[in-house]
Amino acid sequence: MSSEKITLYEFAGSCWANAPKIALSETGFKKDKDVEWVSINLAEGKNFEPEYLKINPAGTVPTLIAKGEKYQDSISAVSQIVKLAPHPPRVDAHTSTSIIEEIHASAHDPNATLLFAINDEDRKAKVNGLPKGFLEGRQKALDKLAENPPAEFKDFLTKKKADNQQLLNFYITEPDEATKQAHYSQGKNLWKSVGIALRGVVTQALQKNGGPFAGGEEPSEIDYHIITWLSRTITNTGVEPGSPASVAIPKLQEYTGGHNIDPVVGKYWDAWIARPSFKDNGIH
Ligand SMILES: N[C@@H](CCC(=O)N[C@@H](CS)C(=O)NCC(=O)O)C(=O)O
After folding, report:
1. In this protein, which residues make up the domain named GST N-terminal (predicted)?
2. What residue ranges line ligand 1, CB within 6 angstroms?
3. N or C: which terminal CB in the chain sees fewer CB atoms within 10 Å?
4. Among 137, 119, 129, 132, which Cα is nearest to 238's?
5. Whose CA is nearest to atom 16 of ligand 1?
6. Which fold has domain 6-84?
7. How many Å lie between the centroid of ligand 1 and the Cα of residue 109?
8. 129-177: per-residue pLDDT in tens?
């Protein structure tokens, strides 16, 4: 690495910020010497403050700054990390960009499976767990920021405020049955899409080179995205983060319609949870 540090805007609880974190660890960056870490507290809506929106107009983490250039999403951030890496992965992932994009599809985004309930029991768990508190923290920030917003961010903040309030209302009021069923149907569709991705592109990618990783024996760029998605998806089923495949995969199978999941997925999971990059970054 050159003497100039790269800057990573991230948050410990963010799913997609885990992709560049894993990439940095896997490719030989030194956490303190090479990287300036900036935490943006999503649970307090710090990502909606104008100072951060100037850095990333979508108000999302991660953002990477390297050699004066900004990379405002995890796909471009990871790709840049790999380019600058002291020890880049031996397998080149440029042929896998469509799989990486598929992993990131909003139809099965882990942030959505985290926040959308699938039935009354799940709704109750989300009221008593992280989702309600997270939505409340964001709402407090959005209410304040939308009072007197800079003109350039007015529309963005007004929409975020309304969308977040609608979701929060689902958890802090007693919605009527039709509202509940419409919400649960969205939640179920998300998990259906998780199942399709898992049994489709993910399984195919892991079968291709004999495993355990997509490129074979060592993780490569595509894996930094697959494991980021898989780990938060597994956590969203309610298992303890870092649980072995024997615990995690049956739960994943249950949430995704009950059909078998190819053993390559369990092997992949067990290979990842043993890696320092997974443990040191507290991936979940
Ligand atoms: N496509 C983006 C998605 C990033 C994203 O959704 N980040 C979440 C955290 S994992 C976030 O910052 N959410 C804030 C919000 O939507 O308010 C990427 O890959 O970086």
Report:
1. 4-89
2. 14-16, 42, 47, 59-62, 73-75, 104, 111
3. N
4. 129
5. 60
6. Glutaredoxin (3.40.30)
7. 10
8. 999 999 999 999 999 999 999 999 999 999 999 999 999 999 999 999 9
